[in-house]
Known about the structure:
By secondary structure, the protein is mainly α. Helix content is 87%, strand content 0%. It has helices at residues 2-22, 25-33, 35-47, 52-70.
Amino acid sequence: PAFTVGGLTAVMVTTHFIALSRVETAYMVSVKRTSLLFGILYGAWLFHERGLGMHLVAGALMVLGVYLITV
């Protein structure tokens, strides 16, 4: 398990820096932050967290903030 986590972290770091070398940082970070919404959906689906609507609104507000910074 530790090697799997280490390997996946290495892939994440590598792809992060490849993306930074290809596009502007603000754009790459804004796309990366949309994973927040997937995390909220997974939390509701896998862990049966309550308040999905409120969490999605809060997450959308955060993504909107990133969008406004990059525009």
